[in-house]
Amino acid sequence: MRVIIQRVKSSQVTVDGEIVGKIGRGLNLLVGIAETDGDAELDWMVRKCLELRLFPDREGGDRWQKSVQEIDGELLVISQFTLYGDCRKGRRPSFDRSAAPQTAEDLYNSFVAKLRESGLRVETGKFGAMMQVSIENDGPVTLLLEKEAN
Predict the structure, then answer these.
(1) Which one from 36, 65, 82, 132 is the annotated catalytic residue?
(2) Which residues pair with 143 in a beta bridge?
(3) CA atoms of 15 and 137, how far apart (whole Å)
(4) In this predicted model, what pLDDT tens digit does every residue of 6-60 receive, in sequence order?
């Protein structure tokens, strides 16, 4: 499982000209599901996304002391199978490692449900749709989280 995690001041996702998800301060999560992913990877990733200290302890501070939970932040979660695009050969990415659409959607929905158990506001895009994502990256802070199946 791969997640691009971005600390944001705000973020929104639009489908067919309509805003389907919008957040203020928090995290924008672009989520890629591999064919080998399961509950262990989901649980690890949920914990990391909620507990990573990515926010300063006070306004204008430079030390990252607080998690998204500790600041009562918001989450925008967007499915992005292209995170498993393999560009090593040829001129067109291969997506052989991405999970099949139905499997990916089920795992994505489980990931979102587990994040919602935190009590934080969690917004989403629309699985499988062409989406436009607007991100006001804060910092900028952008990290790649990855959990390989054992």
Answers:
(1) 82
(2) 5
(3) 20
(4) 999 999 999 999 999 999 999 999 999 999 999 999 999 999 999 999 999 877 6
Q: Which amino acid is at 18?
A: E
Active-site residue, 12 included: no
The residues facing 119 across adjacent strands are none
- Would you give the end-to-end CA distance of the chain in angstroms? 12
* Residue 107 contacts residue 42 (beta carbons within 8 Å): yes
Catalytic residue list contains 102: no
Residue 96 corresponds to which amino acid?
Answer: D
**124 noted as active-site residue:** no
| Structural contact between residues 49 and 115, judged by C-beta atoms closer than 8 angstroms | yes
Q: What is the pLDDT of residues 75-121, one digit of tens each?
A: 999 999 999 999 999 999 999 999 999 999 999 999 999 999 999 99
Classify strands 64-66 and 55-56 as parallel, antiparallel or unpaired: antiparallel
Burial of 141 (0-12, 13-18, 19+ CB in 10 A): middle
Catalytic residue selected from 6, 12, 14, 80:
80
Is residue 66 a contact partner of residue 55, using CB atoms and an 8 Å limit? yes
